[in-house]
Specification:
Layout lengths: L4 E6 L2 E6 L8 E6 L3 H9 L3 E2 L9 E4 L5 H6 L5 E2 L6 H4 L1 H14 L10 E4 L3 H13 L6 E5 L9 E3 L11 E5 L12 E12 L2 E13 L15 H4 L3 H4 L16 E3 H10 L4 H30 L13 E9 L5 E7 L9 H18 L4 H19 L13 H35 L4 E5 L4 H18 L5 H7 L8 H18 L42 H17 L6 H15 L12 H17 E4 L5 H13 L1 H15 L2 H23 L8 H13 L1 H9 L10 H4 L7 H28 L2 E2 L3 E4 L10 E2 L2
Parallel strand pairs: 3-4, 3-5, 5-6
Antiparallel strand pairs: 1-2, 7-10, 8-9, 8-10, 11-12, 11-14, 12-13, 12-16, 14-15, 17-19, 18-20
Helix pairs in contact: 1-10, 4-13, 9-13, 12-15, 18-21, 18-25, 19-20, 19-25, 21-22, 21-25, 22-25
Length: 780
Amino acid sequence: MNLPSALAYQNGVKRKVRTKKKKGTITANVVGTKYEIVRTVIGEMAFLKTRDEDETANFIWNDSAVQHEKIAELRNYQRINHFPGMGEICRKDCLARNMGKMIKNQPQEYNFSPKTWIFPAEYTQFQNYVKELRRKRKQKTFIVKPANGAMGHGISLIRNCEKLPAQDHFIVQEYLDKPFLMEGYKFDLRIYILVTSCDPLRIFLYNDGLVRMGTEKYHAPNESNLNQLYMHLTNYSVNKHNENFERDETADKGSKRSIGWFTEFLRTNDYDVAKFWGDVSELVVKTLIVAEPHVLHAYRMCRPGQPPGSDSVCFEVLGFDIILDRKLKPWLLEINRAPSFGTDQKIDYDVKKGVLLNALKLLNIRASDKKRNLAQQKAEAQRRLYGQGSMKKLSAGSSEWEKQRHTLERRKEELKERLVQVRKQISREEHEKRHLGNYRRIYPPDDKLLLEKYESLLSAAFETFLAGRAASLQKEMNNPLKRMKEEDILDLLEQCELDDEKLMGKSARQRGSKTLTSMPESAHVPRRQKDFSSSSSSCNNSSSSASENDDDDEQKDDFRQTKTVSYSLGESKHKSSERSSKYGVGGESLLNLRTKEEEAELTQQTLATLSEMRIRFPGRSEEEAEMILDEILDNWKYHKPKVASYWLVKLDSTKQRKVVDIVRTNLRSVLQRVWREPDVESLHLYRLFNRIFNRLLWSHGQGLWNCFSNSGSSWESSFGRSSEVVTVQELQCCRRVVQLCKDCLLVVYKFVQDSRGSLTGLIWSFGRYTPTVQCAEVWE
């Protein structure tokens, strides 16, 4: 028997017999569900159902939301199907309140939710809105819903708004009276969403779902049909009671159909299916971004000792109810954190079984998790007992050397923790790719530009909902390490070790970076390099001006001083393998479909474009901007302490990154245009640029400040330890990027100095190409 306990007879007497658990068995506690499909899926996954009172099961399912205390008591190897805090978008009143805040903050992005008022708090605002409609001689229909209702109970349509009670608790929403119709019937879509983690956020969309149709032909609402709920409501729990409800065993007929069939219907009728699913995916992600600050904060409160990035003990299958207007735009109706898994029809069974079965495979619940967790708890207890792994605190009388060493050790610990998180994430993603089934990941998306937009919205959501609270969470959100890849972190760890060797008085390695100090000792600053290419602004092989030739002579001298050579592949691989062995990571290989000659040509074009790029001072011409930069460098002794104070002291790490991101953002567009590659992350040159940006921001911006010294730049040392080959042209591109970052800092510094702290705009110029970037921030 599969059951842990069974009834048996011995000598005619009924007695209870316990069956032993096999080693390596995944256990499941599903006493909290009424749905047979959940038990069926558990059986197919070969999970062993436990006794009702067993609280140690690997997998726990409850149909309703669970108390925060329950989540706090879970062991790290357990999984439960609800997140704390998800009610912030699953209760109708909470969803309306939180969406309202994001609509005020990001009106262009959050335009998929109908206007909603929460009674009684917003009764006055609603009546004012109705009066304004009456003044314009417009009349709209509104739908009234209970604040925490479900299954269509208590829903009604109204047009005479004066009759609404002012003190009752419910929500009022504008009724979408021009829906997309199917065979003359109104319908909605039940989209199934799996959230596997909130730390970090990971969202998956199931590629099938349910199309739920009304059972009366739709007509626009008027006084005579407002009470015909079979026409206006699409809830299955409402329409199943109508005699016109059609039950059918196929996915393309009846009052309930599959989304797979609906997708094929759109394709057959020449609708843009890709855009439709893109819009649906964005709606889902943006809605869950609204929930993320609440969910993450509540989750951290329940699991205070759990390190960021560790396996989540929670997951959730959500049911998004979406309606389409006649232009096929999706509108969010509501979100169900306990969607029905009833299987009244075959289509229910097929769709819902796939939702659950594929979700459990994605979760990667292993029998070994319990044993591994117990071993980790034991090791952690021993570390606490013997004081291992804890950093010593600095005393009040600590020397400057001790403070530097302590800072370096703390930095190394932070990098190692992040490295562990990144490696876990890589392992998790590899498992997901193999076990997606009929799911697809919609957050984080593969599209880098879309990811940047989502991250911006996520940052706005944290500022909106956690303003003045959870400061550590907001600080963590802005941590530059969150955006770094494994190779970048390994670079920084190696830099830490080099700095540690110097502090300890050991001999520096041949390619070691210079010591980080508060300010470069040299008061002299080399003249800015004007061009690194003999190309003209049109990227053709035309002759350069005399002044450019003079600059080229200076650059050749610079190249000789820094020994600009193409590092050999054998030497780089040897150094990379040493580092990989040291930190326990294998090397990466980059698939390159271009020939070496094509890459060299494209790199030359990139270099020519970079040479044309200039920082334009807001409100000034290019010539005036050049004069301002020259004036700063000519009077460097005067400006040096002011620039150092502004960059190293006044700007925090977030604002420093924003300065550098001005260059980074424009580099992305340059590479996309020149290389005709939308995903620039895969380009070797972009990887080099990324490494430079990380090095420039090293030690709170000390890396960029060191570039103002003529004693060498530490960013070049990272190439000697990399498995990537760096050509002369690529190194020239990198140097030009560093120069642009220096110019950008000086322009920002000068603009803030002139405008007393308010930076209203920075504009780039690309020669004959003229894309621009606006940056509105207070940088002081």
